Amino acid sequence: MSDRRWGWLRQWQTWGWAALGAASLYVVYLLVSGLLTPAAPTQPGDSTMSMHGIVSEGRHGRTYWRFTADSSEISADGFTTTYHRVRDATYYRDGKPVYKLTAAQVLVDSRDQNYTASGGVHIWSTDGDRRDFRTEDAYWNNAAQLLNCTTPTRVVYDGDVLHTSGLSVNLSTGAAEFGNSSLDYVKPSPAPTSTNR
User: Fold this and answer.
1) Do 115 and 71 have their domain in common?
2) 26 in any annotated domain
3) Using an 8 Å Cβ cutoff, are 194 and 177 in contact?
4) What is the dihedral of CA 16, 18, 14, 17, to 10 degrees?
5) Contact 180, 163 (CB under 8 A)
6) Average pLDDT, whole number, for the chain?
7) 124 close to 139: Cβ distance less than 8 angstroms
8) Residue 190 lies in a domain
9) Is residue 189 part of a domain?
10) Total structural domains in the chain?
11) What is the pLDDT of residues 67-107, one digit of tens each?
């Protein structure tokens, strides 16, 4: 009987060693797979893509734009792009240029084609309607065709200069709302007549 008992006990020892070996292999597997897993980015900027010497064109329905910029970064999710030193930016509607823009920085959201411009923003019309805006920050809502300037803005319209604390202009209808404002009005010279020649 003692030989039977030792045989049974040896069988449990064999299974114990097998279980211990399997557990050891599992721990080694976890350690190796943990070491081979790449680290997640710690900051949002870790996964951006940068480009230099940008010449770009975009289209959204009946509108499109063209511009050049020194450089850009695309966000990790791919939805926003920040362009630096934007110049020669032209916005077209129905194939005709409507306005131009220059700015130190422009952030474009590709989901809705809205943009935010900042740093020496200059926007002027090209459709014969003499409008000119200069400000530090401007926000364009593409769906509403609405330009919002939330910082002090200088507006030139037909030679008259308006200084305002902020403004909102619908570029489709021409409707505008102004903050606290002052106007530099230049009275036109009278037309020459036979008596004042």
Assistant:
1) yes
2) yes
3) no
4) -50
5) no
6) 81
7) no
8) no
9) no
10) 2
11) 899 999 998 888 899 999 999 899 888 888 888 999 999 99
